[in-house]
Amino acid sequence: MTPNIPQHVTPRRSVARSWPQGRLQRPSRNRYEARSWHAARYWPAGLPGGQSGAINSAALGVALGVIGIIIVTALSFVYLGQVLTTASQGTSIQDLEQHISELRQKQQELELEGASLRSIQTVEQRVQQLNLEIADKVTYLTLPDQRVAYAR
């Protein structure tokens, strides 16, 4: 337990009581006054809630609690946005992977088709369809010299 030690406390002077009745005058600057002239003008009996401008531990605790709740809420919304973005990107990745597998399958089909078109049997069938004949005698054109001059 803490001991009760008597302390000398100077009470705050009420600004409203020190003013003359009837009109508001600016009070003198006293270092013991807790309220400003504006606060005394709008709330002559004191600020709402008791002491004039004092912040006690309960008010500080409530203020810090509210600030903490606001920060946690803001961080929760940021986290939720990140999760939703990641989920939407996950579905996009799945769609792209499916598209890649379809393209690979189509590539294999095209390679098989190209191989069948290059086969000897297909070439012989095309020769018959186009009514081409096999050349018996082949002649080649030979140039007398490999140098060719152009006339100007």
From TrEMBL:
The chain crosses the membrane at residues 58-80. The keyword Transmembrane helix applies. Keywords: Membrane, Transmembrane, Transmembrane helix. Residues 1-31 are annotated as: Disordered. This is Septum formation initiator.
